From TrEMBL, chain A:
Residues 100-446 form the Solute-binding protein family domain. Belongs to the bacterial solute-binding protein 5 family. InterPro entries: Peptide/Ni-bd, SBP_5, SBP_5_dom, TAT_signal. Gene3D superfamilies: Dipeptide-binding Protein, Domain 1 (3.90.76.10), Dipeptide-binding Protein, Domain 3 (3.10.105.10), Periplasmic binding protein-like II (3.40.190.10). GO terms for biological process: peptide transport. This is Peptide ABC transporter substrate-binding protein.
Length: 527, 318
């Protein structure tokens, strides 16, 4: 009887005939806890399918007054969320790690994967009414890959020999094979703009499902649904409001007091408290992002692999996941690759082993303390993680000295400059992109100074390999080299932690970044 | 009256000199910050080529003193330059933010100043009673708590638990006046609580100080009622210190609100300044700091003039 009553009440609430508060009250009277009642309501709402209309409001951390709308410079998550709504790339990641066409209808490579052609979807219009052409795509990629580019995509676009636009085809010629080139086109910086944004990079004119109507940098952004969007199924809310709420407590309070419908970056420390709030749902989604300790393999004392192994065995990875991420993440294995990547193959888990660490340490012949630099902005909780590392290493007889550096200037004066420090990576769309960005000998961001000729050769060879099984094995070998000889200590992969209110529904797993790879405001709907 | 005029001119001249010194200090303080502008703008994911391109574009390869004098010559002609990061005019970036800050400061001042002075008079009248003690303890508690903490408490009780007021005070551009008042009530209330105690206690102390004077005793002996003794006889002589404290607190309402703005997501100058410092956006930092410095100079001047005008002895020095 109770079950029937509950289902009835939940359906009524989902249709809006009784309000949420009333529903939770009556469900409570029937003996259901507030959390369980919220979950029940959520499942009923989900089952009824997407609804069009209404306004979705999003509270975001990471916005700044001095940000710009130029996609090339959109390095932080708020800037990226802002352009996800008005813009679109050629292709996009799918939840299973593959690719789907956005502005490109289809794409194909030649036999040795050194030339790629994208067919541009016909009849798509920019929000200024102009029709998208292959020339616009060409101009966009030129702007990001060209001389003097400040684009975050520059590194991924290296190796382009020439590009051309013909009819509705856009073709890229590479100076070597790269089976992953289509993935590079999915990177969020590459929003297609009219004439590539060469005339006005900050115009925020694109082909996205929403149109930027009004904005106040670092404060708020409001959008209307794009009536001319090529796929009329996409986009549920009529309006979207993005509000920058940098303060963590204020963001959660705004969600609780119905001022926003979803927020990003719930601090791991408060996840268990926020979970208990009625009408709020936490989404802790695995990511490619990892929190790391990095050693320069070419600088004493870290030029000695025995010392590097000693440090790798003297860190307690599970403890880091429990105490730094509060369980919102997964354990690392000293490679930058995890199961979120396509073609991933795991290793046996490297455990905390003070005895092994001590024997490697003895073999290295090092004595005295080792200086580890850290700062709060190198990753959330980095100074605490450094202290945990210090304590676990002490068990193995290794002495770490911690130096706390200021947040200001950490990325210019410490990271990629000092031989041993804390840092993080947000991950890249493919294994090749991640390894080429940070572990290739010639990479600008080779922040572990990992110089290995065999590694470089195999990484380049893997780009040309079309057999997935062989490629999987090659990437496994590459990760193995980093794991056993590199300067990376990777204790944990962090989750993205977002929260949504029960006023919206439609959350689904995704690959990429937070808030369903920034698609949550587009794909979710107002209940 | 001539003396007051001369004093104002002299103080304004000194004020301009102070502003110049402050601008030099700020410029070199920004220069001393670790890291450089290009790196701060592009963040961790900046490649060396990115950095070189941006440095060239921002003119950072020119020596610092030369950059300062370029800025100074512009500023003297009323041109504060463009933001290094966004390329917008400094004036158009700061303008709307300054209006927001002034709105919030006036909102808080309109509530706090009369309330603090009235409460000060009441507690002076009822000194050493339970009312006096309670008022003192409450206002001192409010001033002793950090602003962000007070803000969180107000959010918890007045926004999250009761839903009476919005937790974030995002004032829309097209909001009408009453909506603006309603949306920004919590930040205004936080600031009222922060500045009340200081002004109230100064009013109380200044009045009580005078109550021991012979002329007050005379008034009492004449049989004047207690409230009249305070309002008509003591208060006129107590204005000078009260005006000083009010002026200082008004300045604080404009310059000291960064944390309140952050907690309530209120788009004011403080938030802009924090963002600008993080990105080393020197023209914005410079302009914000000069506005803050000018606020202090002008309000101090106003306090001195006020003190002179309310005190006949200062107005006619022998």
């Amino acid at each position: 009887m109770t079950k029937l009553q509950l289902d009835y009440l939940a359906r009524e609430a989902a249709r809006g005939r009784i309000d949420r508060r009333t529903f939770l009250g009556r469900a409570g009277a029937l003996g259901l806890s507030a959390t369980a009642a919220s979950a029940l309501l959520g499942s009923v709402v989900q089952a009824q399918g997407a609804k069009k209309g209404g306004t979705i409001r999003v509270g975001l951390q990471g916005g700044s007054t001095s940000a710009t709308l130029d996609p090339a410079l959109a390095t932080n998550s708020t800037d990226q969320q802002v352009m996800r709504l008005w813009g679109e790339q050629l292709v996009e990641l799918t939840p299973d790690g593959g690719l789907e066409g956005k502005l490109a209808e289809e794409w194909s490579g030649n036999d040795d994967a050194s030339s790629w052609t994208f067919k541009i979807r016909s009849g798509v219009e920019f929000s200024n009414g102009k029709t998208v052409t292959a020339e616009d795509v060409l101009a966009t990629i030129e702007r990001h890959a060209g001389d003097g580019s400040k684009s975050g995509a520059l590194g991924l676009l290296k190796g382009i020999k020439s590009m051309k636009a013909e009819g509705d085809k856009f073709t890229v010629e590479l100076d070597g094979p790269n089976a992953d080139l289509p993935y590079a086109m999915s990177v969020i910086y590459l929003q297609i703009q009219p004439n590539g944004g060469k005339d006005d990079p900050n115009a925020a004119i694109g082909t996205g499902p929403y149109v930027l109507k009004d904005h106040d940098m670092g404060v708020s952004f409001s959008y209307d649904r794009n009536p001319n969007y090529w796929d009329s199924d996409v986009g549920n809310a009529s309006q979207i409001e993005l509000l920058v709420v940098n303060d963590d407590s204020a963001r959660v309070a705004a969600l609780q007091s119905n001022q926003v419908d979803m927020v990003n970056r719930v601090p791991p420390k408060v996840v268990s408290l926020v979970k208990r709030l009625p009408g709020v749902e936490i989404h802790s989604e695995p990511s490619k992002g990892h929190y790391i300790f990095i050693m320069h393999c070419n600088t004493a004392p870290f030029d000695n692999n025995d010392l590097r192994m000693a440090l790798k065995y003297s860190i307690n990875r599970q403890e880091m996941v429990d105490k730094i991420l509060f369980g919102n993440g997964s354990i690392g294995n000293d490679t930058p690759i995890n199961e979120s990547y396509p073609l991933f193959e795991g290793f046996e888990q490297r455990e905390y082993d003070p005895e092994k660490a001590a024997s490697y340490y003895k073999k290295s012949g090092h004595s005295g303390s080792i200086l580890l630099r850290t700062s709060e902005n190198s990753f959330s909780g980095a100074p605490d993680a450094a202290q945990l590392f210090q304590a676990s290493a002490k068990q193995a007889g290794i002495e770490l000295e911690i130096k706390r550096e200021p947040n200001d200037g950490y990325w210019s004066d410490v990271w990629n400059v000092q031989p041993f420090c804390t840092s993080y990576w947000g991950g890249r769309p493919t294994q090749d992109a991640m390894l080429s960005t940070a572990y290739l000998s010639t990479a600008d961001w080779n922040d572990t100074r990992f110089f290995n000729v065999d590694f470089d050769k195999e990484l380049i060879a893997a780009r040309a390999e079309k057999d997935d099984a062989k490629r999987r094995q090659m990437y496994h070998d590459l990760s193995g080299m980093i794991r056993d000889t590199g300067g990376l200590i990777c204790p944990m992969f962090n989750n993205f932690i977002d929260a949504t209110s029960s006023r919206v529904a439609g959350w689904a797993p995704s690959k990429g970044f937070e808030l369903m790879n920034f698609y949550a405001p587009i794909k979710m709907w107002v209940v | 009256m001539n003396d007051v005029f001369k004093l104002v001119l002299k103080r304004l001249g000194l004020g301009v000199l102070t502003l110049l010194v402050i601008s030099v200090l700020i410029f070199f303080a920004v220069e001393l910050l670790p890291g450089d502008i290009a790196q701060a703008v592009l963040g961790q994911s900046a490649t060396p080529e990115n950095l070189a391109a941006l440095r060239e574009q921002l003119g950072l390869n020119v020596p610092a003193p030369v950059r300062y004098f370029h800025w100074l010559t512009g500023a003297i002609q009323g041109d504060f330059g463009t933001s290094l990061i966004t390329g917008d005019r400094v004036g158009s970036t700061i303008g709307p933010r300054l209006l927001n800050t002034l709105f919030l400061a006036s909102y808080a001042a309109v509530i706090a100043v009369p309330a603090a002075i009235l409460l000060g008079i009441f507690v002076a009248l009822l000194r050493n009673t339970i009312f006096d003690r309670v008022a003192n303890v409450l206002t001192l508690t409010a001033i002793s708590s950090p602003e962000f903490f007070l803000g969180y408490i107000l959010i918890l009780y007045l926004a999250v638990k009761t839903g009476w007021f919005p937790a974030i005070a995002s004032i829309g551009r097209n909001a009408d006046f009453s909506t603006m008042l309603y949306n920004s009530f919590l930040p205004a209330l936080t600031m009222v609580l922060v500045v009340m105690a200081h002004m109230m206690r100064m009013t109380r102390a200044a009045i009580i100080n005078l109550l021991a004077s012979p002329y007050i005793e005379m008034a009492r002996l004449k049989g004047v009622p207690a409230w009249r003794v305070i309002v008509h006889h003591a208060l006129p002589n107590a204005w000078a210190p009260i005006i000083n404290v009010v002026a200082l607190n008004l300045a604080y309402l404009i310059t000291g609100v960064v944390l309140v703005e952050v907690v309530f997501v209120y788009p004011g100058v403080g938030q802009l300044l924090v963002d600008a410092v993080a990105k080393r956006d020197f023209p914005i930092v410079q302009a914000c700091c000069l506005i803050f410095a000018a606020t202090f100079i002008l309000l101090n001047l106003a306090a001195d003039v006020g003190a002179i005008l309310t005190n006949p002895r200062l107005r006619h020095p022998k």
